[in-house]
Structure formats: structure tokens, C-alpha cells
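A favour, since you know our C-alpha cells better than I do. Just paste the record in under my message, thanks.
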Amino acid sequence: MATKKEMEVVKGVDLKRYMGRWYEIASFPSRFQPKNGASTRATYTLNEDGTIHVLNETWSDGKRGFIEGSAYKADPTNDEAKLKVKFYVPPFLPIIPVVGDYWVLSLDDDYQYALIGQPSRKYLWILCRKTHMDDEIYNQLVEKAKGRGI
């Protein structure tokens, strides 16, 4: 069986510009996300130490669910947009950390939409600064994901 080539990621992401609220337009969600979640969004805030505070929110059956965590560069000496995200499960009892990869696979010049994945290619998120994305941009991101074997 042939091994897949490692996915290319964006280089030189300006984390300050990346901060703020992002809306999930589409995803192959992780096992920790509710299957019937709606209006899912992530809010990123840069901490003084260079780490990122992560707030993921979704609404399921009319109720808000959320989890908070942190993100940090996988390799601070590299300019690739490969981050690690860490959440504690369950969130109300911060004992067991769950760490995952957050790779920025595509990002427009204006930081308005992004394609996020991870090395296993099992999870994918298409994010936008607005709650709706133009179909043409969405289709371009889907094709980029397919081109990376997702």
C-alpha cells in the first residue's frame, strides 16, 4: 500500500489576523462534536504567551454546548500553520487532555475563509468569517480538500 504524501499547509500565517470568530460551513466532525449541532462556531483569542484560547460553540436541540481549550504552534521554529489544540474531556472536570492537530490547509489573503484539516485526513472543517459562504468559494475549498486526499 502506497503511503500518502504529507499535506502541504499554509506558511506565514499572521496569528493576530487569524484571531476572532469563525463559523463552520461544513465539516467531517471529530467524535467530540455533536452530530446534530447547528450554528457551530469557533472564537480564537491570542494570549500574551503566544498560545491561543479556543472557544468552540454549537447549538443542539436548542441548547448551547461549548468547550474551551488552547492551541499552540506544533513547532515554534517553523512558519508552517501546524497547530496543536488541547481540550479537556469532560470539560467540567479538567483531568484528561485530548490533543489534536489543527492544520491550516488553505487561507485566503483577507483571512475570510479557511480550510482546516489534520494528517490522518479523517477530519475537515471549512470555516468562514460569515455564517454563509459563496458557493463558488465553497466548491473551490472542497476541490482543494479532495486534492489533498480528504
Summary: Helices lie at 15-18, 135-147. The chain has a mean pLDDT of 90. The CA atoms of residues 117 and 124 lie 5 Å apart.
